[in-house]
UniProtKB/TrEMBL annotation:
It comes from Sphingobium herbicidovorans (strain ATCC 700291 / DSM 11019 / CCUG 56400 / KCTC 2939 / LMG 18315 / NBRC 16415 / MH) (Sphingomonas herbicidovorans). The record marks 145 as: Raises pKa of active site His. Keywords: Purine biosynthesis, Transferase. N(1)-(5-phospho-beta-D-ribosyl)glycinamide binds at residues 13-15. The keyword Cell membrane does not apply. InterPro entries: Formyl_transf_N (IPR002376), Formyl_transf_N_sf (IPR036477), GART (IPR004607). NCBIfam families: PurN. This is Phosphoribosylglycinamide formyltransferase. One of its GO terms (cellular component) is cytosol. The gene is purN. It catalyses: N(1)-(5-phospho-beta-D-ribosyl)glycinamide + (6R)-10-formyltetrahydrofolate = N(2)-formyl-N(1)-(5-phospho-beta-D-ribosyl)glycinamide + (6S)-5,6,7,8-tetrahydrofolate + H(+). PANTHER family: PHOSPHORIBOSYLGLYCINAMIDE FORMYLTRANSFERASE (PTHR43369). CDD domains: FMT_core_GART. Its EC number is 2.1.2.2.
Amino acid sequence: MKAKVGVLISGRGSNMAALLYAAKHPSCPYEIVLVAANDPEAAGLTLAQAEGVPTFAQSHKGLKRAEFDRIIDAQLRRAGAEYVVLAGYMRLLSAEFVAGWENRMLNIHPSLLPKYKGLDTHQKALDAGDSHAGCSVHVVTSELDDGPVLAQTEVAILPGDSADTLAARILIAEHQLYSRTLADFVTRDR
Ligand code: GAR
């Protein structure tokens, strides 16, 4: 039996797409049972629907954080998710939600953690004059962009890189790192 994964997105959803396409390979140890978004306009929802993956969208506007998270949590459990994967999910999570998925929730972050938590990671790496930037997959704990790092990919910064050109290259690395790390994680877990 493949591990059942719910993916949370807020927008474009390119990491979700990479996870989804990787899951099409017969040897992939996970399957995506739900893609949920906190923005009904999230572009990734259209892609997931076209691929036949169940989706759920609920705007967080006007809802208390814990209240909103309970709605998402209920959808994940209803879909039979055993793991939660954050893929560009730009929401802080309630402590209850994090506790409910302890050691079963992963996030991808576009920096070499513990460097540059939060936003504007690419510009921060450029401003610091770093030779390399990159991406990290980590287990989600109650601290933002914290929790044990499972895997990282270093990406060389090129002369003339802007935050946008660097982000685009790191995204290529993200797409490869995430599905492989998730596959290893669910395999190790079983
Ligand atoms: C990705 O670069 C991801 O690493 C980043 O948002 C982007 C989402 O793109 N996540 C964070 O910054 C989380 N702190 P996508 O929607 O195309 O996957």
